[in-house]
Amino acid sequence: MEISNNLGNYDQEVDKIIQKMDGVVRDFKRFSLSLPGRINVAKTFLYSQLNYLGSFIPFNNEQIKRFNAKIESFVKGSLNISSKRVFAKKTEGGLGLFEVGNFLNSQKCTWFRYLTENNDYWKEKILKNVNYNEWWYVSESNVSGGTIVKGLVGAVEKMVNSCIKDRKFFWESKLAYNNLIPIRGRRGITLDYEFFGIAAIEEIPRIISLKTSTLYINGVLLSWENFVHISGININRGNYMILTRAVEILRASLYGEERIQPEVKFLKKFFKKESKGSKCFRDITNLRTERYIPHNIVKFAQTTDSVISEEQSQIINVLWDMNFLDNHTRTFCFKLHNNTLGLNSRVSKFVRGHTSNCTFCNIGEIAEEMKETPLHFFYNCEYSEPVVMYTFREILNENDFVQMTRSDFFGTFKFDNDDKNMVLCLIALWTKMYLWKARSFNTLPVNEQALNYIMEKIKDTYENSKKFRNMVINSELRIRF
Fold first, then answer.
1. pTM for the full model?
2. How does 191-227 read in b/e, with b if 16+ C-beta sit within 10 Å?
3. How many percent of the chain have pLDDT more than 90?
4. 54-68, 132-146, 205-219: lowest mean pLDDT where?
5. Most buried pick, 8, 38, 213, 293, via CB within 10 A?
6. From CA 153, how far away is CA 279, in angstroms rounded?
7. What is the structure's pLDDT at 305?
8. Whole-angstrom Cα distance, residue 58 to residue 148?
């Protein structure tokens, strides 16, 4: 590594890292890797090029974009999805890759696990004006060290600030300099030392270590007088009202009318040296406050005329990530639920002259023209429907079979047995795969052939995965192979 005496030539290091990443991409592009295969290569060989230097070098936004673009281009391959989806969580319809900025910040957070053990220069600079009992409540504005030290502190500060966005971590969020606290209608107001009425330098550690829980007792806001008395911070009444109003809005959005204040110490646990990895920090920094059904599932539900709940959407979106499934199945599953399968109704929008009609209907010379949509192709087509019905009639008992709906087939099943529901979801997926395979060979589907194909899939997975084997046993389905 070569850096100038003013720590300014990071571009040179970025170029070296990009060159190494290009070498990895060239080596693996020779192979026809599946989507899960490319993801594994990226996590193993591309992120590792960034891990060490990125833990302390303060890369700027443009440099981060270059790294993200390199990883995105390799993993996507010919897959047509947005950049946002590449780095989105799997439950949100994404690939679950790490956004480089968030990934490197979480790596920097892991360095703080060693602050209680060493006496290095950077420890002295970081802990100079901090409450030693909760030294992770730090502020970049209060660090006098160089760029690298400020980068470490900034990463931890961003992570602790993010706690305010989630019910689990809300009570541990930092207040001072937290730009995620919505001071509505108050332009120019910053939650800095001046806002809290700092009178002496000795008060800085108390202000830095202020957290959400210090504003409450048993879930009820402290009065201004009680807060000043307990905390020893002389914030004026007006600013205290501004602060508590903003924090209370966030609390109400997470807890509603519920007035609870649990004793939580997640951050203390995360910063213990015994803890491993950076995932806990990455998860906090990447929190979302709102709950919603991801766009890909909204569209999938529309094209299949199904009703899919938020809870079901999360199950569907992580189905492709089950590691006991083969890569071909996982790739098909991701494309299906992300609406990128090459069905004729979709392809015809991009290729002039391409038919939008159903492949099976064309082969069977059905007079009526039917568009090849997901709903028609996998469920309503007169060649597909018998396959679906025949398969599930063989596996389910009569009472369960008559309860089965289209939303079950495209979404998730709703029996009381979770293992049974998951096995049925996978059987529905393999049924769709068989229909897609028949389409690829330009042949019509056959009931017995479909059932044999699905039973072979079940048998192979059953023999190679203890987790799936337990699911099948607990499901009590009529599976024989």
1. 0.83
2. bebebbebeeeebbbbbbbbbbbbbbeeeebbebeeb
3. 53
4. 132-146
5. 38
6. 18
7. 95
8. 6
